[in-house]
Each structure stands twice: as structure tokens, then as C-alpha cells.
Amino acid sequence: MNNEKGLKKVLAVLGAFALLGLSGCGQEQTTETDSSVQETTELTSEVATEETTEAATEEHLDYENQDEWVFESGEMQSPINIETGAAEAMIEDGSLALDYAEEVVDVIDNGHSIEMEDGGKATIAGRSFELTQFHLHSPSEHTLDGEYFPLELHFVHKAQDGRLAVIAVFFKEGTANAAFQAILDDVKANEETTAASGLSLNVAELLPTNKSYYHYLGSLTTPPLTENVEWYVMANPVEVSAEQIAAFNEYYEGNNRDVQPLGERSVLKYEE
Ligand SMILES: [Zn+2]
User: Fold this and answer.
1) Torsion of CA 17, 21, 25, 26, to 10 degrees
2) Angle formed by the axes of helices 50-59 and 3-13, to 10°?
3) Predicted confidence band at 72 (pLDDT cuts at 50, 70, 90)?
């Protein structure tokens, strides 16, 4: 660090430290300056815009002590409430092409949900993902304009580079759903056996015909709550019967994470 650069940095923070900054770049002074940066940032953060805070942080990065850099997370969590009227129309073509295997590898009770290990492909907005599994939450995790649905299904996908994408489907009370019944029957049959189920079902029945969706960037809804998960929440629910909802709730009811703040994020809407 040269003196001119050091002076600029210190002046930008607090005039009182300018003289100290001129006299050198000792470890102790760096620490003092850093703490004053933090205080200043904290004091102004309530009124400062995000850009201002980021700029101030970048200007005072201490590359000698990178392990002290603050790692911020938790601003992009899921689930969220979706204000449907506030969603922005998606500019790019976000069309979905789903080709899920009808032969489910296994149906397992993982301790917090019923999970179907399944394969298949999803092309989301022109990018390729592999289906890894799908599972259910009761009641729903996401809400639409504050409204909960009895169930929410999550199709979890992974891209070649490791990126995760989840397609969420709300289930509402209506007519019975054959594919959902096959899952419930399989879970019941497997209560007495641990054999792999090899269940065959028409996965397409678990998805709405019209695949319009709400899209935002969020997280996993169970630990480790990993962020940068792409969410595609189907706008149209699928019908299941009241008896089927009750049957699922015998296994899991209340396995939904609380709604998280949207913060600065945008919710996009893709209309099929
Ligand atoms: Zn889930």
C-alpha cells in the first residue's frame, strides 16, 4: 500500500485517522482503521443504499487478512410469499420441457418427507438439468398472495456444473390424482418391507398442464439452506382429493419452512 492510496482510503472513512494513515501501514493501524470502517458502515447502513455500502467495503478490503472478510449470507432464502401482482414479466423465453422417467427408482421416508428417487431430464429456459428426486411438504412452503395450499411438491434438479433448480407444484383439494395415489399406496405397502419399490407412475400427472410459473433465486428449504437455487413455482395447482391429503398428513404434516423475506430480490413470471 502506498501513502497516497492509504491517505485516500483513510480520508474516505474518518478524518481523524488521516494522520495515522500518513505515517505508515502498520498492522495495528490497519486494524484500527478497519474497525472504524465497520463502525462507519454500521452507522450509515440504515440510510445508505446497498451500492454505497458495497463500495465502501470494497475500498477497504484487507488482502493481508482475508480470513477476516465478512461473509454475508441469508439474504436469498426460501420459501417466500409470491405477490402475484408484483411479478415482472420474464423477458427471455423461459419455456420448460420435462421428460421425467416413469419408473421411480425408490420411494423413501427420509425422516422429514416422503421422497421419490427418480431420473429424467428438464430443459429450463434452454439449459439442461437432471432430475434427482422429488418430495412433498404439508402444508405448502411458498404462498401465493399469502395463501397456503394443502401440499407442495418439489422436483429437485441438478445441472452438470452443480447448479440446483427446483420446480414447485401446489396441490389443492379437488378430484383424486392417480399418480399421487400410487405414491401413497407404495409408501403404505413399504411400511412392512424395505425392498426397493420400482414404482411405475405417470409423473406428468403431478404437474399442471399449463406450465406458467413464478421464478426467483432462493435457497434449499432444509439445512444446509444452500443459496443460489433457481426456483420455478408453478402458477397453476394440481388437484388431489381431501382423502389423499389426509393420507399424506398421516406421515408428515407441518414439514414446511416459514416464509422468508424477499428482500431486494425480483420475482419473474413466465406465461406459457
Ligand atoms: Zn422441498
Assistant:
1) -40
2) 150
3) confident
Task: Give distance in angstroms: CA of 153 to centre of ligand 1.
Answer: 7
- H/E stretch holding 3 reads helix 3-13
Dist. CA 150 → ligand 1 center (Å): 14
Mean pLDDT of 233-244: 98
Per-residue pLDDT tens digits for 58-70: 567 888 988 888 8
38 Cα–ligand 1 center, Å: 37
Rounded distance from Cα 70 to ligand 1 centre (Å): 29
Positive or negative, the CA dihedral 260, 265, 270, 271 is positive
67 lies in a domain? no
Closest CA to 59 of 48, 67, 71, 51: 51
Catalytic residue among 112, 135, 154, 215: 112
Grid cell listed for 36: 472504524
Q: The CATH number of the domain where 34 resides is what? A: 3.10.200.10
- Whether the pTM exceeds 0.85: the reply is no
Number of folded domains in the chain?
1
Told to judge if 112 belongs to the known catalytic residues of this protein, a careful annotator would answer: yes
Judged by average pLDDT, the poorest of 42-51, 131-140, 146-155, 176-185 is 42-51
- CA of residue 164 to ligand 1 center, whole Å: 12
The predicted pLDDT at position 25 comes to 39
